[in-house]
């Protein structure tokens, strides 16, 4: 296990994002991949970021491998599946910058990312910090889902920091019951939770942020950053709760990847020795810059954020 190595696990797809004039540009994105990308942007060169997924043998999958390599994201945990294909999605934006998505992912190779247990274990054993999401779990067959959770429980017992963002997408799940059970099992396998309050209210029936935090505390999670969008975040750690104010956003153009960038900034900050409160404050600044630009992956003007006083 390498304490200076972050492994994110999940699905990366071709992204079609709107640009001026009603046109679309293509790139690559996906919730945990976005987190890995932002962490890589914010970490020094001597710290490593890898991505675990499965890709096809098509040219778009090959393009993603090259994109990862150019971004400094390790590709050793990527499985290539012959004759499979990468998934694709399109972003639609309303006048307020809020997004909706159209997906073509039913045959995505990433659905087989946990189908090779030995490959998965080797990737997880190397990392001191591991991040996954509810989407990671939702795209997997039930048996592979349990295999992944078993490896994460094993890594947690060995001392790894396991980060989970529920990132709820009900349409990806076979049932709401399966979604609830898997997210609870994921929380128990984790050491850090990064949920969104709006999703907790909408999909898990909580009535307040205190109830959301209590729900995860009851599952044995001691470290929680509850994201509240324009209202900032609430950090709960070892029984103490701190409110994190939102960072000023000069403009809101596209909220795509706001939460993912927040997650990446939290993990990058923790890996560099910051406490959870400070990590969340830095993450709020990163997210405020991301929503001022189009697309999931954007350059952060204050990239050397670790030197900024927040």
From TrEMBL:
Keyword Lyase: no
EC number: 2.7.1.45
Domain of life: Bacteria
The UniProt record lists the keyword Kinase: yes
All residue ranges annotated as the Carbohydrate kinase PfkB domain in the record: 5-296
Entries under SUPFAM superfamilies matching the protein: Ribokinase-like
Keywords, ordered alphabetically: Kinase, Transferase
MF terms (GO), sorted A to Z: 2-dehydro-3-deoxygluconokinase activity
One BP term from GO: D-galacturonate catabolic process
PROSITE patterns: PFKB_KINASES_2
Coiled-coil features, chain-numbered ranges: none
EC category name: transferase
GO cellular component terms given for this protein: cytosol
Family per record: Belongs to the carbohydrate kinase PfkB family.
Protein name in UniProt: 2-dehydro-3-deoxygluconokinase
Organism the protein comes from: Gellertiella hungarica
